[in-house]
Amino acid sequence: MSGTAAVTLLAAVASAEDLNNNILNGQVNLADTWAVAEVSLDWIEGCVSVASVAIGNTFSASLEGSSYVSNHQRNTGIIGAETHATVTGVEGYVNLNATAIANNATIETYNADSTVIHSTQISGGYDPSASVEAYVGGVGSDVSVSGVAVSNNLGVASSSYTTDVATRQTNSAGTYSTVSATIEDVAGNVDVTSAAIANSVSISASQPTGDE
């Protein structure tokens, strides 16, 4: 049924010969996806960046010209990211992060007459979670510590004379982010973030310019 709906929507917008791009993406993840970073660092002359990233389904498209994009993502596996870090004596900056995302899609179109996007993202059954435990001390610049957990995320940037976006996001899983950090003796700024997001959509639409 979903295939029939997609074809009907496509025919209503433009005939096949009018399209430069016709993208159909379907992703299903049923298994667990887990990322763990454990580090102990001392006396670093440069900078430190540590990240654990776990993603169930991810899709990215950058398209020139008139486009139709159908995206369907479903995740029922456990998605988790953990970062455990002890970092001391760093001359530069320190960046510690854990990111867990069940479904992620980013779509960019430019120099287009028409852009049509149909996106469905479903997260359910198990919980995406991000966790950061850190001790940071003696840093000569800035310190950033962040944990981010997202069930469904869609980002659209369209430079097109007409932009049509139909999106549906369904989340039935818990979404958890935990950051526990002890930070001492920092010469620069300190930024600590813990974010848990169930459904997120970001859309930017503009007219093509003469430079494109």
Architecture blueprint of SSEs:
Elements: H1 2-13, E1 21-29, E2 33-44, E3 48-64, E4 67-75, E5 79-90, E6 94-123, E7 129-139, E8 143-171, E9 176-186, E10 190-206
Parallel strand pairs: 1-4, 2-5, 3-6, 4-6, 5-7, 6-8, 7-9, 8-10
Notes on the protein architecture:
The protein is mainly beta and 212 residues long. It has one domain (2-206). It has one helix and ten strands. It has one helix spanning 2-13; strands spanning 21-29, 33-44, 48-64, 67-75, 79-90, 94-123, 129-139, 143-171, 176-186, 190-206. Strands 1, 3, 4, 6, 8 and 10 form a six-stranded parallel β-sheet that branches.
Short description:
With 212 residues, the chain is mainly beta. It has one helix at 2-13; strands at residues 21-29, 33-44, 48-64, 67-75, 79-90, 94-123, 129-139, 143-171, 176-186, 190-206.
* Number of separate structural domains: 1
What sequence of helices (H) and strands (E) makes up the elements?
Answer: HEEEEEEEEEE
Round the mean pLDDT to the nearest integer and report it: 92
Overall shape: globular
Structural class: mainly beta
Q: What distinguishing features does this structure have?
A:
212 residues, mainly beta, six-stranded parallel sheet, four-stranded parallel sheet, 6% helix, 74% strand, globular
